[in-house]
Amino acid sequence: MLEVLYAVVLVAAVLAGYVLMVRFRVVAASGSAAGDVCAIVPARNEQASLPALLESLDRSSVPVRVLVIDDASTDATAALAREAGVEVISPGTPAPGWTGKAWACHVGANSTDAELLLFLDADTVLASGALGGIVDLHRRFGGLISVQPYHRVQRTYEQLSAYFNAVAVMASGVFASGVGRRPMAFGPCLLTSRDDYERAGGHAAVRGEILDDVELAAAYEKAGLSVHCVAGGSQIRMRSYPNGIRQLVAGWTKNMASGAAATDPRAGLATGLWICAHHLVAVNTLLAMWTADEALDAGIWLLAWVVFALQLRVILRRVGSFRWWTWALFPLPLLAFDLLFAISTVNTLRGSVRWRGRTVRLGA
Description:
Blueprint: H1 2-19, E1 37-43, H2 50-58, E2 65-70, H3 77-83, E3 87-89, H4 100-109, E4 116-120, E5 124-126, H5 130-141, E6 144-148, E7 150-151, H6 162-172, E8 189-193, H7 194-200, H8 212-222, E9 227-231, E10 236-238, H9 245-262, H10 265-291, H11 295-319, H12 324-328, H13 331-350, E11 352-355, E12 358-361
Parallel strand pairs: 1-2, 1-4, 2-3, 6-9, 7-10
Antiparallel strand pairs: 4-8, 5-10, 6-8, 11-12
Helix pairs in contact: 1-10, 1-11, 6-10, 6-11, 7-8, 9-13, 10-11
């Protein structure tokens, strides 16, 4: 009876992994005229990442005005931006009840009269035709266009982000077939018209939210506006945690548990089933090989290991440049996911975490 239950869970999990990614879409390059676009880059201590973004915007096939909103950086962020020839704005201390990023985006939006507002995290990089592709999507769908960049990972510790990247995309439900209903958006790259931004309430509507991207999507839906999500693919990339494993831990624990609570219930349950099945396969395979009581059992679990590893490989190749061992030896990044998710849960219950030198309130 237990074997039958195992089989049902594993088959259902493989199908869930397929369904959650079956409509995976990436932004396509375009050289079409982009119109009046202003890129707003909230930046706090981003001297390591910002130059690559500014260089990529300078190479864009369509013109774009760039505003760097220097959020009280203590490094060379502002100086590097000025050296690159872009305008730097100091937003001042966030107003009461505002997060630093939401305040910076709000000030940036109020500092330009551009028709289209492009909000970019400082660690993103755009290919020359990426901006035209995003604008083409906006002309087609309107509302809020959201892009989840392809995660460029380099050092060994960065590979531990594997399950976080996969789960963030899968649990959003935006690429699922008949699953995701709750509006979702990815914060690193957002494009909207000024009219729609103001109609949805802008960042003032999400001023105190740690999950400002998710709540902004909800504000757009409440205003009767569409939210359309795509992946970055070869056009939009990011490198989130280049400064060491402590930055990675702080980044993922900042909002992972809160994000889990904000997902569409069906997409969240399907992703939870998928994650649980990975634990089931990892534990039972290792136990079967350790005890070696039944060669048949060990063989069956090894087969399940191969199936789940190969599916994970397909998913990870879509979301980032992860190495072979992250999927072949998936229990290793899975253990990192478990530990950091537990820390994130504790932080959410406690109500705060340190991020870029500030105490950030969680669970709002």
